[in-house]
């Protein structure tokens, strides 16, 4: 049973080239039949390991080094059915229900504005000036 749905924006900062970027992940928490709680991550519809663990560390788009992320922002998504007074619509014709959604472009995990890139740290700037 799904116990929580959320969208999490994860921030990454490369410790090698200082590039910063962020990625949106869909997160589901669920409880299995034995009562154990699990977390499931996906990005652009594909299952991925948790970006908060070494196994899920993503490569820097500039230099390729892998970095574990940290949460930047989070939005919970209410799970159904919700309270009785929650607005909802009955789906009478499932195949024909809102057909435009099937042709809508996918919202990519990196479709949002990326963090502003600061200049290199002072010690790197001093080294570069000395060269």
Task: Describe the SSE topology.
Elements: E1 2-13, E2 20-31, E3 37-43, E4 46-48, E5 58-59, E6 66-67, E7 70-77, H1 100-103, H2 122-130
Antiparallel strand pairs: 1-2, 1-7, 2-3, 3-4, 5-6
Number of helices: 2
For the sheet with most strands, the description reads: 5 strands, antiparallel
Radius of gyration: 20 Å
Count of extended strands? 7
H and E string? EEEEEEEHH
Approximately what portion of the residues adopt beta-strand conformation? 35-45%
Low-confidence blocks of residues: 123-131
Mean pLDDT level: 83
Shape: globular
Distance between the amino and carboxyl termini: 60 Å
**Helical percent range?**
under 10%
Strand arrangement within the widest β-sheet reads: 4-3-2-1-7
**Class by SSE composition:** mainly beta
Which key terms come to mind for this protein?
single chain; 131 residues; mainly beta; five-stranded antiparallel sheet; two-stranded antiparallel sheet; 2 helices
């Amino acid at each position: 049973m799904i116990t929580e749905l959320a969208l999490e924006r994860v921030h990454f900062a490369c410790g090698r080239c200082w590039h910063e970027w962020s990625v949106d992940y869909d997160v589901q928490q669920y409880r299995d039949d034995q009562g154990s709680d699990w977390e499931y991550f996906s990005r652009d519809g594909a299952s991925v390991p948790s970006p908060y663990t070494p196994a899920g560390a993503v490569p820097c788009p500039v230099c390729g080094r892998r970095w574990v992320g940290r949460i930047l922002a989070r939005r919970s998504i209410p799970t159904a059915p919700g309270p009785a007074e929650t607005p909802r619509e009955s789906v009478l014709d499932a195949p024909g229900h809102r057909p435009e959604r099937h042709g809508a472009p996918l919202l990519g995990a990196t479709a949002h504005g990326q963090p502003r890139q600061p200049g290199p740290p002072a010690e790197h700037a001093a080294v570069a000036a000395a060269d």
